[in-house]
UniProtKB/TrEMBL annotation, chain B:
InterPro entries: DUF3034. It comes from Pseudidiomarina salinarum. Keywords: Signal. This is DUF3034 domain-containing protein. The keyword Signal applies. It comes from the Bacteria. Residues 1-23 form the signal peptide.
Length: 139, 281
């Protein structure tokens, strides 16, 4: 009985996330330029995604591109200040479902693949964005 | 096979008729896990708190699986089918055929399973996903188990599982861990019946699994399963395996494993391979 429990404790200790160094992820993503390019790729993915494209029918895509770039720049430790509205405010009334959130995650993964971003860097960004899910869905 | 097909078609019809929701695959790749040898969603030898298929809230999904294990003196074949609704409830059926290659003969077992997610989400939030489940097992070849001292030809396992996924774990890889506590009186998961001269009541057993996703499609991992020891005719051992899993897309899942089942029915050193294929709809 002791052996498996000790084993599990070890596993949970090893898996407790270590905070990434400031700016490191921003740089891995290629800085402001790289993030802007990534968001452009993401918009192209969303544009062909029937599961969520309807949300963006009336959106100002240039603003979305600029604001999402700023937002990702800021949360990855870059030298930017996000000037848009807070996440719950932006997505309130949209009633985005858990499935639709995952659809966007999949589009982002596809965009990161298209931009040849390594899996480790992808995971760091995904972990940061995943933590915001409650501020985005079912509002 | 015919019996299996009949049950499958039946379950499928129930799911289609009774559930006024869309088939859907709203969950992320690989989050349905694989299909265990007992039919529940999980790893290979232990059920996980995850539910099979890719059904998210308001969606239903179905999974069919075929698995084979070959160790020195035995061969196991499992056909399984499961349905998940709303990432909340999973219902499963598995038929096991266990060939006694050296001794001669075959053991057969049917397993009906249900699992309910109580709380948490595998991927999102700090809390692990927690599920409870049961597996009602009916041994269909009780003559041999009875001859070696098993008390009954059917039994029910109850389990509690917790699973957590870290998108950005060590080495900037995605990791998954699952712990399961099971109350059981099954001998060799029920293939040798239930209860025996050394014990006939439910005992708590610990099971664990860890996996690391090398990338989105490939994972490697290990599993452990503690087992009771109710029959004096041959001592029963815990199981271990090391696995590689491949999820090319949300339809197909393939698991290959190296297993060490130690001694079974007195025959020592049962090492070998395990292969499982599943399709989710
Ligand atoms: C963690 C995930 C998400 C983040 C970080 C995020 C971030 C943002 C940001 C920064 C903006 C711009 C806000 C502004 O213009 O002031 C925005 C707008 C928007 N988001 Fe999200 N979002 C996320 C998930 C989603 C999902 C899952 C959907 C839909 C499926 C969605 C739909 C939209 C739409 C439609 C707009 C445009 C609103 C408009 O301009 O009318 N977002 N999001």
């Amino acid at each position: 009985m002791i052996k498996p429990i000790a084993f599990l404790l070890l596993v949970f200790m090893v898996l407790t996330p270590v905070p990434a160094k400031a700016q490191q992820l921003y740089q891995e993503l290629g800085g402001r330029e790289g993030i802007s390019q990534l968001v452009e790729s993401l918009i192209l993915e969303i544009a062909t995604d029937d599961r969520i494209i309807h949300y963006f029918a009336d959106a100002d895509i240039d603003r979305f591109h600029e604001m999402l770039t700023l937002h990702i720049c800021e949360v990855t430790g870059g030298p930017c200040t996000y000037t848009g509205a807070p996440m719950p405010e932006v997505h309130r009334g949209m009633a985005i479902s858990a499935s639709e959130f995952n659809a966007l995650v999949e589009d982002l993964i596809a965009a990161m693949e298209a931009e040849k971003i390594p899996v480790g860097t992808q995971n760091k960004l995904l972990a940061i964005l995943a933590a915001m899910r409650d501020d985005v869905i079912r509002l | 096979m015919t019996r299996f097909s009949v049950v499958g078609v039946l379950l499928a019809s129930i799911a289609v008729v009774a559930v006024p929701a869309q088939a859907g695959k709203g969950r992320l790749l690989a989050t349905g896990g694989a299909t265990t040898v007992e039919g529940a969603g999980g790893g290979g030898i232990t059920p996980w708190a995850t539910l099979s298929s890719y059904a998210e809230a308001g969606e239903w999904g179905a999974t069919v699986a075929y698995s084979e294990a070959g160790v020195d003196d035995f061969g196991l074949q499992v056909q399984g089918v499961s349905f998940t609704y709303s990432n909340r409830i999973e219902v499963s059926y598995a038929r096991q055929e266990f060939g006694l290659d050296t001794i001669g003969g075959e053991l057969e077992q049917d397993i009906w399973g249900a699992k309910v997610r109580l709380a948490g989400d595998l991927v999102y939030g700090d809390m692990p996903q927690i599920s409870i489940g049961l597996q009602h097992k009916r041994n269909q070849s009780f003559a041999l188990p009875q001859a070696v001292g098993a008390r009954s030809d059917s039994g029910t396992d109850y389990y509690l599982s917790a699973a957590k996924l870290w998108l950005n774990g060590p080495f900037a890889r995605t990791w998954l861990a699952n712990a399961t506590v099971r109350a059981t009186r099954a001998n060799q998961i029920g293939l040798l019946g239930f209860g025996g001269d050394q014990g006939d009541s439910h005992e708590l057993m610990v099971e664990a699994a860890v996996a690391m996703f090398v990338n989105r499609h490939w994972a490697i991992g290990a599993e452990y399963r503690q087992k009771p020891d109710n029959l004096s005719f041959a001592s029963e051992h815990d199981w271990h395996d090391l696995f590689v899993a491949w999820f090319p897309n949300k339809t197909i899942g393939v698991v290959g494993a190296y297993t060490n089942l130690k001694s079974i029915a007195g025959l020592p050193d049962q090492k070998g391979w395990y292969l499982s294929l599943q399709a989710s709809f």
